[in-house]
Amino acid sequence: MTNIKGPKSFIAKSRIIPASFTIGFLGAGQLAKMSAIEAYRMGIQVAAYTDRKSHEPMHYMSPRITTGNFSDVKAMTEFAQQCDVLTLENEFIDSQVLNQVQKNSGTPIYPSPESFSKIENKIIEKQSFEKSGIPVTPYKQIARSNDLKVFGRQYGWPYVLKSSKGGYDGYGSETVSNLDEAVKIFNKLGGSNGQDILAEAFINFTHELAVQVAYNGREYLVYECCETVQSNHICVAVVTPARVPDSIKKLAQKRALEAMKVLGTRGIVAFEFFYTPTGNILLNESAPRPHNSGHYSIEGCVTSQFENHIRAILGLKLGSSKLTQPACVMINLLGTQNRKAQIEFNEQLMSEPNGHLHIYGKFESKIGRKMGHYTLLGDNIDSVYKRARSLTENIQI
Amino acid sequence: MTNIKGPKSFIAKSRIIPASFTIGFLGAGQLAKMSAIEAYRMGIQVAAYTDRKSHEPMHYMSPRITTGNFSDVKAMTEFAQQCDVLTLENEFIDSQVLNQVQKNSGTPIYPSPESFSKIENKIIEKQSFEKSGIPVTPYKQIARSNDLKVFGRQYGWPYVLKSSKGGYDGYGSETVSNLDEAVKIFNKLGGSNGQDILAEAFINFTHELAVQVAYNGREYLVYECCETVQSNHICVAVVTPARVPDSIKKLAQKRALEAMKVLGTRGIVAFEFFYTPTGNILLNESAPRPHNSGHYSIEGCVTSQFENHIRAILGLKLGSSKLTQPACVMINLLGTQNRKAQIEFNEQLMSEPNGHLHIYGKFESKIGRKMGHYTLLGDNIDSVYKRARSLTENIQI
Fold this sequence. Notes:
Chain A is of the alpha+beta class.
């Protein structure tokens, strides 16, 4: 790693930003977009490399968009050479590829390819955290269909089958109630074609929690413990602080910090936990990037997850993660129709004091697709949640 | 104006934003940049038309930059046809040109060419407001050098000479102490070559105040009265709320609203006032756009001047201008050296809770050039001001 150039010189000093500095994003969606806004605020340039031909949010926000494949080391290296540092907005790029691009270009990548290799595969991810004593949901790699029966016998039915790479928002993950279903889903997920499949015990949790942690190479910063509300495997709302006992929030924050130390990378990582009726906190998943569960932080915290991600990968001092108001609710605005995107909202939404509308600028709306979000701040979590839901329930998008 | 297309349909409904909607900026500097960030947050596209060949902040933030002359009606019309609405970031474009572009393209421009014609020339500006009973600084148009003597006799020496168009940050404006100086400056400003020159009485003010007002075609919204601190004719800091009696702040807000009604345009306008030792409030200047005196509102108010400018020109409901904390200080970061821009700051600046750094991304730093700003929030205006100055005094940029 001695030949890595880029932000090294000012990262060392951590207090100089030259005007021509460029962050390269692998990916051009809403996470890159919201991060780019923070980079722009600091006078930093942004470029993006995307594998999609259709227009994504970043296409309208930078003149420097490159289209290519995420397995094309040569093209990605050329892109990296035009940037001072690279970062990611998803987990779908192979850590070997990232490693090669970093080596060939001399441009550092955060999250580091090394840390990425610890979590890019869900089986390896669980092993990485488990080894460090962080409780995870019981799991087993399923090599053949006979393992399905064994897992069911050991942990009971139903349980969850997941492909070990590439899943998000419920895709690549299904709950199975009996052996017949399990075999069917195992085959559907590609298990019989060599795809790594993971079985996870079904956790009867009462809350799903999430904690963001940032690391800039020198200091860690932990965000408030928030609560993600899911419907059909998609996060529909985030409630901050989580409506669980303080001791549980503190425990989740402690575990998140430990897990971040396992990864040891610059950047921001979101850690998702199950809180069970028996008082356990189990690490479910990690996302080595700004994450939907942290969108509330744009207005809800002094320094958002996006700004601290930018600071972290640049090696700059991190900003306070303190809440700006006692209660914060973020509602995901999911596509309500399949059409060319357009948002139709009521006027209350726009004039609500302490309400903030974010639209991602995607061109195509699809039912259930994340098209934007709405954040409402206030004093009381229950009334803020109620009000935020009522303001957003009639949005057409 | 019946043939004006663009955002008409959704402005009428004021609750629909289509994904392909584009705001065109005439100008590509930091005001366009900070406004564009708010447009991006709402999923709106941004294009810019600039008369500068060198790179400006917007060059890095949009793939849609057009370079041309601000008197080239044809080129500006073509640009306008690619946009749904146009807006401005300076006062240097002729209202006749804007009117022609609006007519030819069918794309509405806010501030409207009509309102613009009332203030583009400092003499006409003063007449417009004076006619509506808003007290302005005593002034007179200087047609020939003999008028210089007459004005001095009437209002005393020193007084201020200004060219009626194109001045900003002290450029095009000088204080003269006697007739010899006055004649010299009159000639220097082009008075003997047909340039319109304005004489203004020297106001012995104790504070300079500013108030932003937004109008979306249906409702007005007035911001807090802030105080601008000047050094060598350049604003170095903005203190909000202004450190003057409440009755004075209210009066300034009232006058600003009246002045906005004189202009009657959608958009945001900043009004600057002198507060005199005898308790008078005199309107000094207006700026029909987001203005330096309102940068504090990005973090200091629930809805920033930039966001409400975007909302206003789109005809959307305006957001609350309420202060987020009792005290807010904005420090302008002026170039300290002539060099390729790079910012060198201390780590306290980045980790200060409630402190927010904005860098505009200009490539060339010049001594005194506005390169960025720093906003600090808190409870007590005096300690926040002191702390903000101490944090920023050693920045090299």
